[in-house]
């Protein structure tokens, strides 16, 4: 084997476009489970099951092999898989940028001209790598980087097809492979379909007569269906009953319920101009790339409009498709808009490509106004990396999760608060999903049951917990009469008296338990019979808690919405405990609880001071 020949064919710039982002992602990688969908994805991947609708079968099958690596825990291995996919997405930016710059004039001539295009590709890849959206997705389990990489590869295949077709060479295999990847990509996320108009335009704009090629169209469609076959994972695995089997797609009805996302609310808000503007701002180029990045994007689009107009129009078509569906059709309520921000990841990838074009165009313009001095011209390549370096410095601290144990500790502290064979009803996803991971993957506290209240309305979920719901009256309720609070009260009534019943913080403050006395135990609440005498909070579990990153740790900077909520729950639990102790005359213990609460969440210090003052406690 000629190793020297292989090494000569390797592109150092292409390798750098993948390795440098991956290295930085590993520095900031979350070491374990995080909040939001993390625990659910981890449980589905570990058990080769099905995550929330539409199931994400491609992401699950992509990440599963990483769980066999001898690195850390299962969560860390899956987080590593996501970092790899994010690095591949950055490589996709490099691939597209160099392809778009092919044949374009560069600031240097000869072999240095090709180098300029490659350096611009690396700069574009690094700029994309350090945007807050991709960086946040890269350091814990998310399917969007994998989707973005697939979108980039399909775009690249369409460019190769156009190039060969315009040169008089037929290469339909590029289109067939692209169609297959489109179908496959829906298994990472269904927003894959929003890129299809752009891919179709790239083909049609090369020769409008291609629309009459019916045979090739049906072949491409068949390859697309073949790729979509990844969704058979939902059916095959449902028959094996994995730990997490969302939707239980064991028959056609449940399969369609899953992939058509029938389990989500369909009520849409009234949209005024303020809401419309907020929805549109889910796609925010200045936030991701800075204002300089926006200027370079416009500069790159303008530069290619003269020579490769169809590619610019393709980008604009993608922009229109995403805004029309995500903003226009989805009409997301204001408090849920943050969920749609991730959907734009493929569009940010394409934006980074045109930013790379803008960078090289800007330097080309600068060369014409610089003195013909070798030193000045050699300095110019360094300017390519000013933007990615600035974006990295702006976003590093807030995306550094390498010491983020808050979700893991919150879930483990919850389990420590439960007595043997307890039943804990959860309300919010971020309170429930880390528990699923700890119990289902790390095998902690398998004696307890963890029903998730919003899912009690679904038969498939009741079927998944036969120990609790085998003969439950919930099955008898018509679907239109099942509500979260109603099903919760029925489920609590069926379990109370048989096993200890607990609710988490969110459940306690979402439902009024009129027929029970709610007694605090750590960050949980036990349901006791009405008329039970008042008792001080049970805080004997607090010394067992792990509170890494909660008590003002200066080396844990990462704070997202759910991490902040968890920290506030610790503080609110201690504040509630302190209030109760003060009412019962335990002034010293109550004051101590309140002071600790204020140290955890300084924003409640004023309320703590008011409570202490109202109870005559000196501060």
Give the topology, please.
Elements (H helix, E strand, L loop, with lengths): L2 H7 L2 H16 L10 H10 L9 H7 L10 H27 L10 H19 L2 H7 L5 H23 L5 H14 L10 H9 L9 H15 L3 H7 L13 H8 L13 H8 L4 H21 L3 H21 L7 H4 L4 H23 L6 H10 L2 H10 L10 H11 L6 E3 L3 H12 L18 H5 L2 H4 L14 H12 L5 E4 H4 L7 E6 L2 E6 L31 H23 L3 H14 L4 H10 L5
Parallel strand pairs: 1-2
Antiparallel strand pairs: 2-4, 3-4
Helix pairs in contact: 2-5, 2-6, 3-4, 3-22, 5-6, 5-7, 5-8, 5-18, 6-18, 6-20, 8-9, 8-18, 9-11, 10-16, 15-16, 15-18, 21-22, 27-28
Task: Compute the separation of the termini in Å.
Answer: 78 Å
Q: What gross morphology would you assign? A: globular
Oligomeric state as shown: single chain
Largest sheet: 4 strands, mixed
Give the % helix: 55-70%
Q: What percentage of the residues does DSSP assign to strands (E)?
A: under 5%
Count of helical regions: 29
Gyration radius, rounded: 28 Å
Low-confidence region ranges = none
Which structural class do the helices and strands define?
mainly alpha
Mean pLDDT: 87
Strand order of the largest sheet: 1-2-4-3
The strand count comes to 4
């Amino acid at each position: 084997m000629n190793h020297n020949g292989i090494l000569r064919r390797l592109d150092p710039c292409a390798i750098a476009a993948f390795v440098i982002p991956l290295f930085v992602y590993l520095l900031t990688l979350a070491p374990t489970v995080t909040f939001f969908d993390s625990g659910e994805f981890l449980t589905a991947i570990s058990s080769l099951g099905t995550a929330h609708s539409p199931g994400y079968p491609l992401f699950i099958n992509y990440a599963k092999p990483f769980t066999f690596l001898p690195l850390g825990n299962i969560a860390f291995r899956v987080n590593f898989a996501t970092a790899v996919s994010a690095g591949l997405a950055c490589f996709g930016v490099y691939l597209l940028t160099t392809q778009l710059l092919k044949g374009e004039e560069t600031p240097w001539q000869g072999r240095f001209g090709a180098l300029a295009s490659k350096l611009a590709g690396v700069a574009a890849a690094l700029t994309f790598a350090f945007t807050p959206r991709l960086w946040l997705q890269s350091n814990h389990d998310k399917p969007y980087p994998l989707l973005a990489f697939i979108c980039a590869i399909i775009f690249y295949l369409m460019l190769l097809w156009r190039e060969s077709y315009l040169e008089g060479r037929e290469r339909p295999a590029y289109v067939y492979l692209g169609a297959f990847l489109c179908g496959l990509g829906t298994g990472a996320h269904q927003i894959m379909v929003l890129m299809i108009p752009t891919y179709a335009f790239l083909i049609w704009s090369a020769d409008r007569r291609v629309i009459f090629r019916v045979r090739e169209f049906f072949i491409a469609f068949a390859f697309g269906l073949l790729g979509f076959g990844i969704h058979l994972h939902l059916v095959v695995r449902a028959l094996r009953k994995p730990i997490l089997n969302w939707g239980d797609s064991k028959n056609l009805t449940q399969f369609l319920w899953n992939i058509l996302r029938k389990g989500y609310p369909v009520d849409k808000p009234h949209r005024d101009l303020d809401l419309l503007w907020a929805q549109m701002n889910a796609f925010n180029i200045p936030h991701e790339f800075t204002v300089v990045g926006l200027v370079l994007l416009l500069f790159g689009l303008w530069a290619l409009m003269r020579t490769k107009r169809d590619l610019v129009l393709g980008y604009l078509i993608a922009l229109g498709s995403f805004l029309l569906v995500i903003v226009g059709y989805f009409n997301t309520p204001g408090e849920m808009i943050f969920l749609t921000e991730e959907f734009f990841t493929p569009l940010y990838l394409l934006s980074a490509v045109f930013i790379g074009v803008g960078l090289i165009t800007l330097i080309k313009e600068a060369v014409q106004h610089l003195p013909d001095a070798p030193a000045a011209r050699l300095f110019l390549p360094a300017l390519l990396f000013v933007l990615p370096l600035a974006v990295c410095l702006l976003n590093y601290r807030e995306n550094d999760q390498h010491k983020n144990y808050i979700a893991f500790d919150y879930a483990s502290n919850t389990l420590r608060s439960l007595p043997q064979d307890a039943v804990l009803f959860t309300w919010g996803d971020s309170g429930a999903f880390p528990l699923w991971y700890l119990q289902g993957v790390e095998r902690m506290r398998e004696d307890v049951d963890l029903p998730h209240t919003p899912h009690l309305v679904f038969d498939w979920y009741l079927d998944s917990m036969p120990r609790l719901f085998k003969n439950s009256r919930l099955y008898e309720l018509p679907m239109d009469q099942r509500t979260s609070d109603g099903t919760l009260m029925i489920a609590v009534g069926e379990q109370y008296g048989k096993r200890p019943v607990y609710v988490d913080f969110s459940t306690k403050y979402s439902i009024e338990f009129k027929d029970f006395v709610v007694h605090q135990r750590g960050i949980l609440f036990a349901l006791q019979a009405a008329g039970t005498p008042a008792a001080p909070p049970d805080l004997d579990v607090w010394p067992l808690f792990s509170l890494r990153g909660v008590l003002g740790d200066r080396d844990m900077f990462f704070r997202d919405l759910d991490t902040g909520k968890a920290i506030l729950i610790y503080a609110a639990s201690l504040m509630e405990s302190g209030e109760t102790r003060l009412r019962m005359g335990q002034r010293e213990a109550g004051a101590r609880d309140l002071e600790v609460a204020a140290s955890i969440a300084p924003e409640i210090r004023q309320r703590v001071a008011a409570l202490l003052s109202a109870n005559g406690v000196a501060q």
